[in-house]
Amino acid sequence: MIVNQKELAQCLDISTRQVRNLKSEGLFQTVENSRGYSLEKCVREYINFKVNAETDRRTHITKEEIQAQHEEVKKQISVLKLRTLRRELHEAAHVEAFLGNMLAAFRNRLLSLPPKLAMQLSGETDLNEMIRIIKKELENTLEELADYDPDEIDGTIHSESEEDEPEEDIDEEDEEEG
């Protein structure tokens, strides 16, 4: 069946301008020796065009989504690395090891209190003095738990001189360039 541009546009539910645009893109060839279009052939071409356009768009969107997800993961990794450098975040294994060692030392310190206190209190008769001595030893023992150094958790202990060295290197490099 041969149709004109207006009839083809109505059949495909698009504008005549869109038919002209698609023709300029290589779709909708006119029938030889005629100014009309083969309706059957044009419908098939248009369906294939729409399917390909939709498939390409989905592929394109999927690619963009994957890229966006990848960028989000990179951003999260950067944030975690920054927090680690600022000593705001530590690896779980390092924290477990640090706490295990700290609690073991605290346990040993607590277990050493009775013999130590027994020696200190053996000749003491004043109850207030005994309480003061016990309280002082308990506070010393508990003080061990209060000491927290983020550098000890991940095993990187920096001295002040080590922290100053990179700054000096940077200054020397700047002087060489200037």
Written description of the protein model:
This protein is mainly alpha-helical and 178 residues long. The protein has 2 domains: 2-81, Orthogonal Bundle (Arc Repressor Mutant, subunit A), CATH 1.10.10; 90-155. It contains 7 helices and 2 strands.
Oligomer: single chain
> Which series of helices and strands comes N to C?
EHHEHHHHH
Number of strands: 2
Largest sheet: spatial strand order: 1-2
**Through-space gap between termini:** 81 Å
Number of helices: 7
Low-confidence stretches: 158-178
* CATH classification, class level of the largest domain: Mainly Alpha
Mean pLDDT: 81
CATH topology grouping of the largest domain: Arc Repressor Mutant, subunit A
Q: Radius of gyration from the CA trace?
A: 40 Å
Count of discrete structural domains: 2
Percent of sequence in beta strands? under 5%
- CATH architectural group of the largest domain: Orthogonal Bundle
Structural class: mainly alpha
Q: Which term fits the overall shape?
A: rod-shaped
Helix proportion range: over 70%
Q: Biggest β-sheet, characterized?
A: 2 strands, antiparallel
Quick description:
This protein is 76% helix and 2% strand. The protein has 178 residues and is mostly helical.
Summary keywords:
disordered C terminus; mainly alpha; Arc Repressor Mutant, subunit A; two-stranded antiparallel ribbon; 2% strand; 2 strands; 2 domains; rod-shaped
